[in-house]
Amino acid sequence: MIERLDVSRYRALEGAEFTLAPLSESEGWALSLRLESVRDLGARDGLSCYSLLFAQREGESYAPQGTYRLTCSALGEQVVLVVPVGPGPGTRMRYEVIFN
């Protein structure tokens, strides 16, 4: 069974750097992201639901919606569905990951 991380684990990492990469390591690219915000979406079936908003660094091409490897030193690697939500102030692109 895949471990579900609680919202508090991410909230403690706001501002932290993450790496977004394709599932296939042979594709050979990765993007640097910063966890911009964590938003609580309530609970469903006893599990907390939340949204993670990431900001991409300037000068990098963006990733389309899809399933990617998301890695950070504190949590390790997870496979998540990532949705680009458009550019934000001072960023090239922002991405959202929702756990529900």
Topology:
Elements: H1 7-11, E1 17-22, E2 31-44, E3 47-56, E4 66-72, E5 76-86, E6 94-99
Give structural attributes.
100 residues; mainly beta; six-stranded antiparallel beta barrel; 1 helix; 6 strands; 54% strand
Number of beta-strand segments? 6
Mean pLDDT: 89
Helix content: under 10%
The order of strands across the largest sheet is: 1-2-3-6-5-4
Q: What structural class is derived from the secondary structure elements? A: mainly beta
Query: What global shape is seen?
Result: globular
What does this structure look like?
The mean pLDDT is 89. The protein has one helix spanning 7-11, and strands spanning 17-22, 31-44, 47-56, 66-72, 76-86, 94-99. Strands 1-2-3-6-5-4 form a 6-stranded antiparallel barrel. The longest helix is centred in the first third of the chain and has 5 residues, at 7-11. The protein has 100 residues and is mainly beta.
How would you summarize this macromolecular structure in one to three sentences?
Helix content is 5%, strand content 54%.
